[in-house]
């Protein structure tokens, strides 16, 4: 509901009292992004605790998307950062006996360290306590006010401190609190306790964008992926949608950006946080145009899809700014098929996992076993299985078998062989040949959706076929023969195996960039031949000069100790 203008200060009254008048600001922000630029965002992580394995998955998935785009010749931008305002931070800092900024700096530093430890190629790291971001949020707020989409009103509803969000009566339920055995009200979506709050605050006309949001989602190909998340968002939009409370009384929440012109209110943390995706590209673009904005892919966890797929695009529509092209909302991680929880002692530390398993082995496991639609289950034993079976057993072992000195592989002849075998396929090679020819396009369909785990599954299916093929064709027996036909057949058999290794390694570059690059070094693939364009049958081995394999390929994935 609207309230009397006497609630407002003089400056706020002048901006907020609106009727049929035209908005003060009618400037349209247009994107000047060229087709060869690609912008990927990670969510900015809340700094009320240290990073966990779920954070690691999100940043590695976003990194894989960015690296994949770079392999296609795109100029890429990958933003990361920390969300540092809000009541949770204010309360956590108080419990720790620290001032909020020092508290935030401590935990933000750990997320920076995780980016480095995970070999994530982010180009930006933003903190919402940065002065640049404060300026951007203030400008964004004023733009919404000037365009007539923010008003001051009385709001009452169920509020979850942990979620920093209000919920309607249909979004909460009464249940027993497992921590104390008492009955209370909880948010159905997040499971967090809620309390009834009634207060005067600023509100955003979210309901005005209901139809436009539905049209945006239904009109775009995979604008929200996966489909289960898309359907959830559409269901929310088609239910009764209220306007959004976008401020909190400063008497309750001091740790945040003040509402411009009204020091008695603090801007809602989610409005503050979402603007970061524009801040990292230089917003506000006064006298200039955005370089990378809007994001091509925004990677988020399924628990924050509402904020990114409803609130964020609606805010952008209100500001007349371009919308993100795609929101990829991945699933979560469990351990022993149970939700991770500190109280249960089943929270995995990503720093410990990197130290124990090696970076690329844990990156591979997370991408391969992580869920987009369905939750993934974290298990140290399964990390070892993936390392031993896939990376060491299928990939490195196949390369090692082919590079044995007694087989005398002739890599210099592979460029010619690749061209020849595109036209002449022996029936003994037909199954593997077909898999290798089809692999890149099939994997690309998966990678384009963000389904890297499924795409890599196709690569390892091809490697399994290549291992079967080499066992059936016995190159070690062919190598013993001086018959020219046997020697020619030997090189064909070796070509197919190493071509499988080459293609799989290129497909693995976004996921395990270090080990995949080193494996390509071992089979003498030039750095200039590691782009996505080279992920086609016979497209490698073209660089001039002699090609000499490196020894010791099996050492790339050494045996890992069993869990204690």
UniProtKB/TrEMBL annotation:
The Methionyl/Leucyl tRNA synthetase domain is annotated at: 39-403
Give the SUPFAM superfamilies listed for this entry: Anticodon-binding domain of a subclass of class I aminoacyl-tRNA synthetases, Nucleotidylyl transferase
List the catalysed reactions.
tRNA(Met) + L-methionine + ATP = L-methionyl-tRNA(Met) + AMP + diphosphate
Q: Which Pfam families match?
A: tRNA-synt_1g
Q: Is Cytoplasm given among the entry's keywords?
A: no
Q: Which residues cross the membrane?
A: none
EC supergroup of this enzyme: ligase
Question: Any idea of its EC number?
Answer: 6.1.1.10
Q: A GO molecular-function term, please?
A: ATP binding
Looking up InterPro entries in the UniProt record yields: Met-tRNA_synth, Met-tRNA_synth_2, Methionyl/Leucyl_tRNA_Synth, MetRS_core, Rossmann-like_a/b/a_fold, tRNAsynth_Ia_anticodon-bd
Q: Can you list the GO cellular component terms from the UniProt entry? A: mitochondrion
Supply the alphabetized keyword list.
Answer: Aminoacyl-tRNA synthetase, ATP-binding, Ligase, Nucleotide-binding, Protein biosynthesis
Any keyword tRNA-binding? no
Could you state one GO biological process linked to this protein?
A: methionyl-tRNA aminoacylation
**Family that this chain belongs to:** Belongs to the class-I aminoacyl-tRNA synthetase family.
Question: Could you tell me what this protein is called?
Answer: Probable methionine--tRNA ligase, mitochondrial
Q: What is the lineage of its organism?
A: Eukaryota, Fungi, Fungi incertae sedis, Zoopagomycota, Kickxellomycotina
Q: Which gene encodes it?
A: MSM1
